[in-house]
Specification:
The chain is an alpha/beta fold and 569 residues long. The chain is built from 22 helices and 13 strands. The chain has helices spanning 2-37, 42-74, 89-104, 116-124, 138-143, 145-153, 156-185, 197-207, 245-267, 270-278, 286-293, 329-335, 340-347, 365-379, 401-409, 419-422, 435-444, 456-467, 482-494, 496-511, 515-537, 548-552, and strands spanning 80-85, 108-113, 129-131, 189-192, 211-215, 300-302, 319-321, 353-356, 383-386, 410-413, 428-431, 448-450, 470-472. The longest helix has 36 residues, at 2-37. It is globular, with a radius of gyration of 29 Å.
């Protein structure tokens, strides 16, 4: 009702303005003719009339703009939410669920993705998405020799440097593509993946828009936790076991800063700075990005459950642990079409153990295929092995007893799998420990066996071990032998404590309010504040959203606004 009445009121005001202007033109013309007959300059004589009539028109237009702002807030023009996305498919699945909830709340949503395959995945779920105009995505990651080597060796520093170099190579194109996306979509709020921090800063500087960080593992600096790029050591640094608590806290914060500068200084170098200059923006410094990263006013939505990893004591109130952004189970199950071979294998015997490392290429196909089958054989279990990026397969195994065991007891699956469909049909799951996979196993109530490769995977392995919902290895995948993995599988399948705890926690997570709902609450509130700010600005400013071009001409709303402010006017 509110929006309909507002619309009628706005239409009436607009009509009034049009009529007033028409009347004004007729009166002005009549007066000009009259003054011309009297020999008086029409220009001079008309000045007071024109000024007075313009004032009336301006007051009418001002009232119309206020009503238009009310219409916005009533939902006739929904707020626009832009998502700047990067990461693995697991990342995109979480953000996809957040997008779906925002759309259900009548917000206009569009995702900007690294890689056409990721954009197509979002579109397949009914989400408007476009790919960055740069060749950066899963396919390039698969081919980059340094990234592949870093994954194989578990070298976090090498991985960071490789990703930084890749971003630096394409940083100008990434920045330009993001600004073009901004100008085309005209968002009101920006939600960004941590890898897109520099781009989010660019767009904020272009238009003063509020930004929201969306993370799937702990990213906010804290004295209580070392950055997860050094997660193998947890809160401790190697070689310093005798530190006091104060020294640990200081070292953790120092590591956060070091990690930050190592990555972002490399990723956003000279080409990125040139792109900013072309957009009329000042150079970007590490301090600029650090101030955003550590800004207590910036909302941060963390997509995991506080039952698994609670908020840290020194995080500001703007940092929210929302719960897992899990895709709708019914939706996943309905869309997944298991092969006849998979169905037949599952029905042929006891529930198998799942083994899969997804996008982690921690060795050759032969090495990891052998490792998986040797572990399954050592534990005496049937297994479903996901091919993944490493292309694990039966053909990778040498002829002999191992291959014979695999032929009878192991199914290698080359396609993509819906975790929510498969895991309830499994006895346990062995994987690399990505946040999304850990969450899926936990929700299904079966034991997790985490064999981490790098970064946050070590953190989730420690949490699985601490909660006794499975086994989390402290050493990297390349250092885990098949006998150790077989022993972990046996422990999970025979331990009443682990099985009961996993089942109980799974039920608890299913009973939680969906994390994407809570995350959407935060984003929607930021959007509401933004729309209120626009309504207030409409009294004195143009209602049109600012662009890079408008910034250059000095007409952007929000120019000079506080970076962390939700209301940028």
């Amino acid at each position: 009702m509110l929006s309909w009445l507002s619309l009628r009121y706005a239409a009436a005001l607009a009509t009034s303005v049009i009529i007033a202007r028409a009347v004004h033109r007729r009166r002005s013309l009549a007066l000009a003719n009259s003054k011309a007959k009297e020999g008086v300059s029409s220009k001079i004589a008309l000045t007071p009339v024109i000024v007075r009539q313009r004032s009336v028109a301006q007051r009418g237009w001002h009232r119309a703009r206020v009503v238009l702002s009310a219409i916005r807030l009533a939902g006739v023009r929904p707020a626009r939410i832009a998502l700047l996305l990067a990461g693995s498919r697991g990342d995109y699945q979480g953000y996809a669920q957040l997008c779906k909830i925002l759309v259900e709340r009548r917000l206009k949503v569009e995702a900007w993705c690294l890689g056409e395959a990721n954009a197509e995945f979002m579109r397949s779920l009914g989400i408007d998405a476009r790919a960055a105009d740069v060749p950066v995505g899963d396919e390039l990651f698969k081919r980059d020799p340094q990234i592949c080597k870093a994954m194989e060796t578990g070298d976090e520093v090498m991985y960071m440097k490789a990703i930084s170099a890749l971003f630096a190579q394409h940083s100008a194109g990434i920045a330009a593509s993001a600004i073009n996306f901004h100008d085309a979509f005209q968002p009101d709020v920006i939600v960004y993946h941590p890898m897109m921090m520099g781009v989010a800063k660019d767009l904020h500087d272009v238009s003063g828009l509020p930004v929201v960080l969306g993370a799937l593992f702990p990213r906010t600096p804290s004295k209580h936790l070392a950055p997860l790029y050094y997660a193998r050591t947890g809160d401790d640094s190697p070689g310093r076991p005798d530190r006091t608590e104060e020294e640990v806290h200081a070292d953790n914060l120092a590591l956060h800063r070091s990690m930050f500068e190592d990555f972002f200084s490399g990723a956003f170098g000279a080409p990125h700075q040139e792109a900013r200059m072309q957009a009329g923006l000042p150079p970007l410094t590490p301090d600029d990005l650090w101030s955003l990263w550590f800004d207590p006013a910036q909302p941060t939505i963390n997509g995991w459950s506080s039952v698994i990893s609670p908020s840290l004591p020194d995080w500001p109130e703007s940092v929210h642990v929302t719960g897992y952004w899990a895709m709708d189970v019914k939706d996943q199950v309905a869309k997944f079409q298991p092969s006849a071979e998979l169905r037949a294998f599952l029905e042929a015997g006891e529930p198998p153990v799942y083994l899969g490392w997804g996008s982690m290429v921690a060795g050759t196909s032969e090495q990891i295929s052998r490792f998986a089958v040797e572990a399954a054989m050592g534990a005496g279990v049937r297994a479903v092995v996901l091919g993944g990026w490493a292309a694990l397969s039966l053909d990778s195994l040498p002829v002999g007893p191992l291959r014979e065991y695999a032929a009878a007891n192991v199914l290698f699956y080359a396609g993509s799998l819906a975790h929510e469909w498969l895991f309830p049909r499994c006895a346990a799951a062995v994987h690399h420990g990505g946040a999304g996979t850990v969450a899926a196993v936990l929700r299904c109530g079966i034991p997790n066996i985490v064999t981490p490769v790098f970064i946050d995977q070590f953190y989730w392995a420690r949490r699985v071990q601490a909660l006794r919902v499975g086994v989390g290895f402290s050493e990297p995948l390349r250092s885990i032998g098949a006998p150790a993995l077989a022993a972990a599988i046996k422990e999970c399948l025979t331990s009443p404590e682990i099985k009961a705890t996993a089942k109980t926690l799974g039920k608890q997570l299913k009973d939680e309010r969906p994390g994407a709902e809570t995350a959407a609450d935060v984003v929607a509130e930021v959007a509401r504040q933004r729309m209120l700010a626009l309504a207030a600005a409409a009294r004195t400013e143009d209602l049109r959203p600012p662009t890079a071009a408008s910034l250059k001409s000095g007409h952007a709303i929000g120019k000079g606004a506080s970076f962390g402010s939700h209301v940028c006017v």
